[in-house]
């Protein structure tokens, strides 16, 4: 896999959640409950990310300008911060996974993306959505021939709840471990089309070796 490491030229902020409005079908995160959440921005939010230690943020490669959209495979990038963050109760890394998540595991995705499935509304406050990991068979049925070993899907086949535009790169956290990053899907919150996430457990060797060599 080709290494994609960004030495930050744009803004990366790790921020506490503030009160306000949703990921489609979600709810406002409790303030300061997601101290690992990051925003990528050029003066405006365009993608999410997740702090995994005091120098590194994980996000998805399609948020960068040089990504191959043909397969959407290996949709991951590491961002090395110019300066380490000060870790406290408001800014704190999330753990990398110790294994792959089983189907049915309950997780939470958080982000500042669009909260409408058929329009545009970008919230000022961090939004959360509780959702389960789906089976490989459910993923393959929804996206025949498109799922790879670096992807998992999560959400609700009946639709109505999902991550959306602007949530790309935002973390899917299960039992205090980051297991996924918002990657792609068909629309937002559409029935029969759950969200697809970068599968962190399948990319751990790359993550660990890239951080060690940079």
UniProtKB/TrEMBL annotation:
Name the InterPro entries on file.
Peptidase_S1_PA, Peptidase_S1_PA_chymotrypsin, Peptidase_S1A, Serine_Proteases_S1, Trypsin_dom, TRYPSIN_SER
Q: What Pfam families does the record point to?
A: Trypsin (PF00089)
The GO cellular component terms are:
extracellular space
Q: What are the recorded Gene Ontology BP terms?
A: proteolysis
Q: Does the keyword Signal apply?
A: yes
Fetch the SMART domains from UniProt: Tryp_SPc
User: Where primarily located?
Assistant: secreted
Q: Domain Peptidase S1: where?
A: 23-212
* Subcellular location, record wording: Secreted, Extracellular space
User: What are the coiled-coil residue ranges?
Assistant: none
Can you name this protein?
A: trypsin
Organism per entry:
Acipenser ruthenus
């Amino acid at each position: 896999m080709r290494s994609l490491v960004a030495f930050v030229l744009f803004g990366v902020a790790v921020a506490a959640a503030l009160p306000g409005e949703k990921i489609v079908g979600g709810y406002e995160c409790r303030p300061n409950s997601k101290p690992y959440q990051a925003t990528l921005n050029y003066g405006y939010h365009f993608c999410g990310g997740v702090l995994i230690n005091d120098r590194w943020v994980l996000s998805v490669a399609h948020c960068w300008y040089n990504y191959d959209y043909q397969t959407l495979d290996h949709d991951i990038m590491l961002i090395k911060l110019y300066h380490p963050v000060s870790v406290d109760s408001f800014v704190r890394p999330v753990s990398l996974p110790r294994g792959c998540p089983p189907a049915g595991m309950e997780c939470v995705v958080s982000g500042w993306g669009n909260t409408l499935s058929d329009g545009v509304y970008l919230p000022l406050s961090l939004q959360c959505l509780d959702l389960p990991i789906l089976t490989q068979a459910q993923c393959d049925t929804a996206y025949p021939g498109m799922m790879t070993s670096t992807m998992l899907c999560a959400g609700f086949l009946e639709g109505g709840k999902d991550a959306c535009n602007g949530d790309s790169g935002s973390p899917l956290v299960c039992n205090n471990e980051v297991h996924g990053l918002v990657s792609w899907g068909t629309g937002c919150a559409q029935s029969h089309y759950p969200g697809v996430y970068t599968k962190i457990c399948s990319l751990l060797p790359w993550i660990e070796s890239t951080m060690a060599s940079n």
